[in-house]
Amino acid sequence: MIDHATVNYIQKYILKKGEELETLGIDQTSSPFIDVKIVKRTERTYRVAGLLTLSPYKKETVKIDDSLKDLNFTPRKKVKLDDHAQRTLRWLEQGWIMKEIRFEKDEKTIKTMHYRMGYRLYQYQQECIQQKKDAIDREFHEWKNTTKLIQLNYDKIELFSYQRKRGFNSLIEVINKVLDLDFYEIEESYLFPEKWSLQKRLKFLHFVVAFLQLCLQKTNFDWKEIGASYFKEIGGSKKFDSNKQEFITHLEEWTKCPAALLGLSSLGNITPFYFSGQLIGNYSSYQFGPVHALTDLSISADDYSTKATTLWLVENRGILTRMAAEGDFIKETNSLVMCVDGHLRTSHKHCIHQLLKNSPIQQTMIWTDYDSDGFQIAKELYTVISPHRSLKLKWITHDHRIMEQWEMYEKYMTAFLKDHKLEQEQILGDVESWKRWINH
Questions:
Q1: Which of 262, 283, 301 is the last residue in one of the domains?
Q2: What is the pLDDT of residue 402?
Q3: 228-270 residue pLDDT tens
Q4: DUF7281 domain: which residues (predicted)?
Q5: Nearest to 248 by CA among 151, 181, 145, 171
Q6: What is the pLDDT of residues 164-183, one digit of tens each?
């Protein structure tokens, strides 16, 4: 007979709607295999839809073949195997796989024939998944213990510069939120990029603690020291290399300042924020005219404001330079045009927050490419701006229409991207169009 667990597995993953197993009268002879009919039954009809060949579940321990692992079976995956191959018969006899035959409506002609994951293989995979979860749980608790030990040295931050102290405190604030989580909450937490796996999130947490330790120990340090000081083993300095740029970028999301201000040296990267219009900071002042650029370092160290009432956030430099070249358009419309240059950086977000907090901006014009990347940038810009409730938001469509609700623009772009893709420069417009959008 078939055990209850195997029956439940087959019902969940193998059988189709309205099907059941015909378990009565199973002929279990000296053969190691049994054939089980898949039937569809109604009040008036009875039809054999298929046949499963499997081996009754045995509890003895059997080592799984690497070649079976390589087939990457899943509960719903169908695989073609050689019926006469020795390994196929062995896997079938040991319960790793089962053979599924589907019949035509005449109940005799074979429609399809393939192999499916057996209950033993399913159980093996579930045990492996649980072992990984248990290992991650232990690793996360070890990370928590390490982090709590580092907290004993937080008094050293009193010696930091104002900028470094501010970035450090911002990082600690996020770390404390992570410390309040259980490991299974890490996978869904908004504190990490949505597409990161659980393993990658945990690796990033190790990176953060390694970075934190060096911040407390040294005024300046280079990239290689982060992994080397944390892992203390040969090759430790390279542990984070494969994730270098994205880890630094997300670290700066948590610290709200460039990593260089916290001591990380020798990166050689300066992130610009191109703009045209009037802008004032504590250390610098810009007037209407040419295209200017702020850096991530200056944005972190300064606090900017503008007298502009219309803020343009565009994706490409071509739009920025075109608007800046149009005589007095920016001055006449009291606009500030800022270009994220194809990617919304942490420093860009910080600068936008500064401007919206410190300035009399009444409306923001969001203008990005009409492709998947441009759509993503538009979404990220909306996320940055949406907390400012009193601000009027406008999105520009490819046919020069204005949309004032994100939900409308999202629906429009989703439909548009099914058949089209355009860059901003292809629908540049002119001064009259730009003024019309402002006054819409």
A1: 262
A2: 94
A3: 999 988 888 899 999 999 999 999 999 988 888 888 885 667 7
A4: 295-410
A5: 171
A6: 888 889 999 999 999 999 88
Dist CA 80 CA 94 (whole Å)? 18
Q: Are 19 and 73 contacting, i.e. CB atoms less than 8 angstroms apart?
A: no
> Is the pLDDT confidence value at 153 over 60?
yes
pTM over 0.85: no
Rounded to the nearest 10 degrees, what angle do helices 244-255 and 198-217 cross at? 70
pLDDT at 313: 96
Position 123 in a domain: no
Do 164 and 283 belong together in one domain? no
Q: What DSSP string runs through 362-420?
A: -EEEEE--BSHHHHHHHHHHHHHHTT-TT-EEEEE-TTS-EE--HHHHHHHHHHHTTT-
Tell me, yes or no, whether 311 and 291 share the same domain.
yes
Using the 8-state DSSP alphabet, how is residue 280 labeled? E
CA distance 141 to 179: 9
In a domain, 286, yes or no: yes
Residue 216 domain-assigned (yes or no): yes
Flag whether 63 is in a domain: yes
Owning domain of residue 221? 132-262
